[in-house]
Amino acid sequence: MRHPIFLVALAGCAVALSGCMGNGNDAEVARAMKSVNAIDATNLSDIMLTVADPNEAVTYFQRTAKEHPDRIDIRRGLAKSLIRADKPAQSAKVWQEVIAMPGATPDDQLGLADAQLRSNDWAGAKKTLATIPPTYETFDRYRLEAMVADSEKQWKKADSFYETAAGMTTKPAAIYNNWGFSKLTRGDPAGAEKLFKEALTYAPTRFTFKNNLVLARASQGKYDLPVIQMTQTERAQLLYTAGLAAIKRGDVTIGKSLLQDAIDTNPQYFAEADRALKALDSTPSAAVKG
Predict the structure, then answer these.
(1) Which residue among 7, 63, 189, 264 has its CA within the 20 to 30 Å range from the CA of 70?
(2) Residue 8: exposure state from Cβ atoms within 10 A (0-12, 13-18, ≥19)
(3) Torsion sign, CA atoms 193, 199, 201, 203
(4) What CATH number labels 142-217?
């Protein structure tokens, strides 16, 4: 079923086409047909990159790229659709083709760097980013630079890039979350807690952010749940996270209590929490702490 916007645009061109045919002007008919095809292709490409099934989008762009090998927009669409289909290594290969074509831009290089990072080619991503002029400053540029700096444990540089990226978008939730996770992994749970809270001010329903916040707090021995928006099921999951974190820190009694709370809170049977609690009950405390 075709997208409504696509149908409206096509209908408009059909009216124009019928008018041209009425005048019997073959040249105008040809131009009208060309306009119809152009609108068809543009709208279909947009649909394939947004609401279409990722694998169907890949097939569409692969077929169209063979029919129009010189169209850089189609090649870009293929690279992006491969990312959506969770095939970053293949996407990187296509981006390499894109940046070698006339009309390639620094955004295409960023697309390549992003695909390289997703496929764990950190060295390749660093090399690609280095080819982009330093004056080309965009949100994606700083987001990717922050990730590369993180991977090399260049914390000051990473913090600077994260901060800059956050200031260049109206939707910085994911950046704050990534920054917070970076702080958590480098042993700064208090700093991570602040960043996860900041992320939730922009995306209060994202469970991943909530879970990360609980992890950051539990890493500091703060096992009570923060005052944030949550469903009953989410509350149970967060109690479970806090319980496991407490046990990992050696606070086994508190951890068992949190696991029991998670089981009691969940509106359905909480299999993971139940298994964890039973395992604790059958294991000597000393062994658990060790």
Answers:
(1) 7
(2) exposed
(3) negative
(4) 1.25.40.10
| Distance separating alpha carbons of residues 247 and 72, to the nearest angstrom | 54
Instruction: Provide CB contacts within 8 A for 37, sequence distance 6+.
Output: none
Task: Report how far apart, in Å, the C-alpha atoms of 188 and of each of 45, 194, 281 are.
Answer: 44, 10, 32
AA identity, residue 122? W
Question: Following DSSP, what letter does each residue of 187-212 receive, concatenated?
Answer: T-HHHHHHHHHHHHHH-TT-HHHHHH
Q: CA separation (Å) from 88 to 105, 119, 124, 141?
A: 20, 5, 13, 18
For residue 37, pLDDT over 60 is answered with no
Compute the distance between CA of residue 244 and CA of residue 251 in angstroms, rounded to an integer.
10
Phi, psi angle pair for 42, to nearest 5° = -65, -50
CA distances for 18 relative to 4, 40, 217, 219, 240, angstroms: 21, 17, 67, 69, 65
Please name the fold of domain 53-136.
1.25.40
Q: Compute the distance between CA of residue 94 and CA of residue 208 in angstroms, rounded to an integer.
A: 31
* pLDDT > 60? residue 288: no
pTM of the model: 0.78
